[in-house]
Every structure is written in structure tokens, then in C-alpha cells.
Amino acid sequence: MGIKYKNHDQYPDAILVRDFIGEVGVHQIIESWEYLIGKNLIKDSTRGVINNLLGCDLCMDMNSFRTLISFLKKQEHLAKIKLAVICDKPETIVFPALGEKKETELQIKPFSTMDAAVSWVMDDLY
């Protein structure tokens, strides 16, 4: 269905939140990143992007995951910020968990709550 963007209520200059709604695939995710980069929505003050996948149906397999990671690694803006992923399904959490363990050039980490994701982005608690 789609991805909606908003600045975090408490840290509007530091955290951008992407809410995933309905069924979302890799092409929508890449288009979303291209939109954010193209519209300069990721600023120098941005410390992280929180990807809220709670309740969404992530349509991803290992091939599409590799496509996404390849895209992310090519984006200079994204290498400098934290990419938190909030998940509530085992079939979804596997992808940010793989990103955290295998993709050392990127700062990806899965979470189960918004509060934990915000703490990681802002305070380096994890």
C-alpha cells in the first residue's frame, strides 16, 4: 500500500520516521529512499531513520533483500545515519537482523518498540 513519512515528535531535526502500511515490497522501499534523498529530507542534522513495519506485510525474500542492501550501500547519505527497523513478525525481523550482523558498512538494527529505536538512534545505548 505505501510508506508515510514524518519527523519524530520529540526529535524532529534528528529522526525521520517511515511508517509502512499494508503490503510493501522492495521496489516501494527503494523508491521511498530515492524520494527522501531526492527531496533532501535526510539532512545533516538527521541522526537516523526509524522504519516502522508494525502491522505491515513486508513482501521480501533473500533476493529482494540483497537488492535493497546493494542500493543502500551505494547511498552516501545512509552510511552516516542509523537505520532502525521496528518489527513484530519473525518473517520480517530476519531481514534487519541479517543487516545488523552481515552489513558492517551500514548501521541497521531491529527493534520491537519505538522507544527502544529512538534510544538507540539518539543515545547509543545499544
Helix fraction, binned, reads 40-55%
Q: Provide the succession of SSEs.
A: EEEHEEHHEHEH
The proportion of residues in beta strands is: 25-35%
Q: How many individual domains?
A: 1
Q: Any guess at the CATH architecture?
A: 2-Layer Sandwich
Task: Give the terminus-to-terminus CA distance.
Answer: 32 Å
**Radius of gyration, CA atoms, in whole angstroms:** 13 Å
What is the overall silhouette?
A: globular
Please tell me the overall pLDDT. Answer: 93
Which homologous superfamily in CATH is the superfamily?
Answer: STAS domain
Number of helices: 5
> Uncertain regions: pLDDT < 50 for 5+ in a row?
none
Q: Report the top-level CATH class.
A: Alpha Beta
Structural class assignment: alpha/beta
CATH topology: Transcription Regulator spoIIAA
Secondary structure: number of strands: 7
Largest sheet: 5 strands, mixed
